[in-house]
Write a structure and sequence with these properties.
Layout: H1 14-44, H2 50-77, H3 88-104, H4 113-140, H5 142-145, H6 149-178, H7 185-210, H8 227-235, H9 238-268, H10 274-300, H11 302-323, H12 327-363, H13 368-396, H14 407-435, H15 440-473
């Protein structure tokens, strides 16, 4: 590959795109087992009230929101960057404790409720800390891989494809593995978590070996990164702020849907095994959507495709609430909604590198770590709310584990899985539609101006060097 080629036209190999996608496949294998099943493990195996599970998610996710900020500070503070790059070493080394803690979270114990809650909270916080080091580095690496906006969109599609496959495998495969241990369900949870975490670890190492950082830039000495600057990076970068608000809504909606679907299939549709089939078809629809993202972006632009995905998502949820009482219709309308999420979730990652370039254009300082972790801060706050609300709402609607639920509880489950995500998707659409102004034409202008500035700076430096040499000669 020609390193001297125009950065805006440089093409990545299929092998490298695949390796990058495997990174989110692996990280989602380790993340989604917690997103999908940890609350149910707390309530059904550890005997915790759903409220306790919600509080654990809230506390731990708020903690990891700030660890994301610390990761950004750490990344932007790096000065002596070796041949492995600025971001890749964190993918290699942090993935090991992520896998260990992801497994440990599913270890049953007979301690008191207070001790169980404390252990679960600490483990979840540790998972968030190491996951921040691994995943924030993985995401912030995109601007260092390529400057080509089309290639960035493709990397985002490969990333979302990997994430979708990871989510699909967790949705379809976790409970069947767990059910192999019918005599000891707690042991089944632990074995399934161990299996998925090990596979996730191997995929992260695949990503480390397969990607290349071509445009590594060291943050200037006079710019000292800090958590405050990472936080302020959101508010000084209007496109990033709008994206954070929209993502706050979409991620909360998506995670609420994932957390409640296991309860919905078991108690509303009376068929928990339907979860695997629903996951297979709906995640398959997400994969189809992911493959369509690059072509749709080329034809319509990122913003229009993003809004189209939100429209499909909200429509699918409304139809499911009205007519999704049978297994067939539930799967059908869920496929429509998840197909829409493919465009939204893919473009969330494709838009972030654009805001990095916008920040450099506006301030003259390139800080991938601060921008990316400022963005992931909003995602973790969203995840905190998405973990907290289902636990609180399950308590409010009168959920009791492993028993026949009342009509009020069943209605509450339907509202939680459909109406809440639909409302949040509509808010995200309004936010992006009215306030996101960084379109393709403006982005091309920004990249061109940044290149012009750098060329002028290099010419000025060369001129100054020549003048100094002439002065010495004289």
């Amino acid at each position: 590959m020609n390193r001297n080629a125009d950065p805006l036209t440089l093409k990545l190999s299929l092998r490298e795109k695949c390796a990058y996608g495997m990174g989110d496949f692996g990280s989602n294998l380790m993340l989604c087992i917690g997103t999908l099943y940890l609350l149910k493990f707390y309530t059904d195996e550890l005997g915790m009230p759903a409220f306790y599970g919600g509080v654990i998610f809230l506390v731990a996710k708020f903690f990891t929101a700030f660890t994301d900020m610390l990761t950004g500070v750490l990344l932007d503070s790096r000065r002596n960057i070796g041949e492995n790059g600025k971001f890749r070493p964190f993918i290699l080394y942090a993935s090991v404790p992520v896998a260990l803690v992801a497994t440990a979270q599913f270890m049953a114990n007979d301690f008191s409720l207070t001790v169980k809650t404390a252990i679960a909270t600490v483990l979840f916080m540790m998972f968030g800390l190491f996951y921040s080091l691994m995943n924030c580095s993985y995401g912030a690496m995109v601007p260092a891989i390529t400057k080509n906006p089309d290639e960035r969109a493709q990397l985002a599609a490969w990333r979302q494809g990997g994430a979708t496959l990871g989510l699909l495998l967790c949705t379809v495969g976790f409970m069947p593995v767990q059910s192999l241990f019918n005599a000891n369900p707690s042991q089944g949870y632990f074995f399934a978590a161990l299996l998925f975490a090990l596979c996730g670890l191997l995929c992260m190492w695949w990503c480390y070996n397969g990607v290349q950082e071509r445009y590594v830039e060291v943050t200037p000495e006079h710019h000292k990164p800090s958590m405050i600057k990472s936080f302020c990076a959101i508010f000084r970068n209007p496109p990033l702020l709008v994206l954070c608000i929209a993502n706050l809504c979409t991620l909360a909606a998506f995670n609420i849907k994932l957390a409640i679907q296991v309860y919905y299939t078991q108690y509303v549709l009376n068929d928990i095994h339907l979860l695997s089939w629903m996951g297979f078809f709906s995640m398959g629809c997400i994969l189809i959507g992911v493959f369509l993202v690059p072509g749709a972006v080329k034809r319509f632009g990122k913003k229009q495709v993003y809004l189209g995905g939100l429209t499909l998502w909200a429509t699918g949820d409304v139809l499911n609430f009205l007519w999704g009482s049978s297994s067939l219709m539930f799967v059908f309308f869920s496929c429509m909604a998840f197909f829409g999420t493919a465009f939204v979730n893919s473009l969330n990652w494709a838009l972030v590198p654009d805001t990095v370039d916008y920040g450099e254009w506006k301030t003259g300082i390139r800080t991938e770590g601060s921008v990316y972790t400022g963005y992931t801060f909003s995602r973790k706050i969203s995840a905190a709310l998405a973990g907290f609300l289902p636990g609180i709402m399950l308590t409010q609607i009168g959920y009791v584990p492993n028993t026949l639920q009342s009509a009020t509880t069943l209605l509450g489950l339907r509202q939680l899985i459909f109406l809440w995500p639909c409302g949040l998707a509509i808010i995200a659409a309004l936010t992006m539609g009215f306030f996101y102004k960084l379109n393709e034409k403006r982005f091309a202008f920004i990249i061109e101006e940044i290149s012009t500035r750098k060329n002028k700076s290099c010419q000025q430096s060369a001129t100054n060097t020549e003048n100094k040499a002439s002065a010495v000669t004289l």
